[in-house]
């Protein structure tokens, strides 16, 4: 049995089927002053989905759709995610890549200005 994560993301993901996200992931590297002897860069805590990154796969299935008010202006999806590979921030980055960042995730776009 693999790991399964319950998550809440912004927007309405399609319900009823497993979504397979296969965007490659790359850790961002930042220059370090005086770090030339050690390669001059360090790993940051951010990941981007882009060609040339390491292979990554996540399976996502929506469990329910939620709305925050009667007008249905704020829609959310409650979902289960299964990381097939185990990359840093994989689920967070893949959901943001789909345009549905996790709720309250400031690094990958899940926070609104008034959060």
TrEMBL record:
GO terms for molecular function: pseudouridine synthase activity; RNA binding. Coiled coil: none annotated. InterPro entries: PsdUridine_synth_cat_dom_sf (IPR020103), PsdUridine_synth_RsuA/RluA (IPR006145), RluA_PseudoU_synthase (IPR050188). GO terms for biological process: enzyme-directed rRNA pseudouridine synthesis. It holds the Pfam family PseudoU_synth_2. Residues 3-96 form the Pseudouridine synthase RsuA/RluA-like domain. Gene3D superfamilies: Pseudouridine synthase. Belongs to the pseudouridine synthase RluA family. This is Pseudouridine synthase RsuA/RluA-like domain-containing protein.
């Amino acid at each position: 049995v693999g790991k399964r994560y319950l998550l809440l993301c912004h927007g309405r993901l399609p319900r009823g089927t497993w979504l397979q996200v296969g965007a490659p992931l790359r850790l961002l590297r930042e220059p370090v002053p005086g770090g030339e002897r050690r390669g001059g860069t360090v790993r940051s805590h951010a990941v981007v989905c882009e060609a040339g990154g390491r292979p990554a796969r996540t399976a996502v299935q929506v469990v329910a759709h939620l709305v925050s008010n009667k007008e249905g202006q704020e829609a959310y999806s409650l979902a289960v995610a299964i990381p097939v590979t185990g990359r840093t921030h994989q689920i967070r980055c893949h959901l943001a890549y789909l345009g549905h960042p996790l709720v309250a995730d400031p690094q990958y776009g899940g926070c609104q200005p008034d959060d």
